[in-house]
């Protein structure tokens, strides 16, 4: 991908693309049925997005993903963190 493209995304979102790519790489072989793995990913996404995730919201996200109701990707978790009423 074009480095300029990533720089534009970083400017608009404030999210470091190296962090996002590192997270994406770590997800490739992760066990999404494992609660500890899912919690770790949620914490990492929250850190990258500079958002605080209350325990009850984290529990809801974990339960949703571990049960198979939601896929585990940056976009899904980010939406759940930004729109906790869903």
Automatic annotation (TrEMBL):
InterPro entries, per database record: SpoVIF
Protein name: Stage VI sporulation protein F
Native organism: Metabacillus arenae
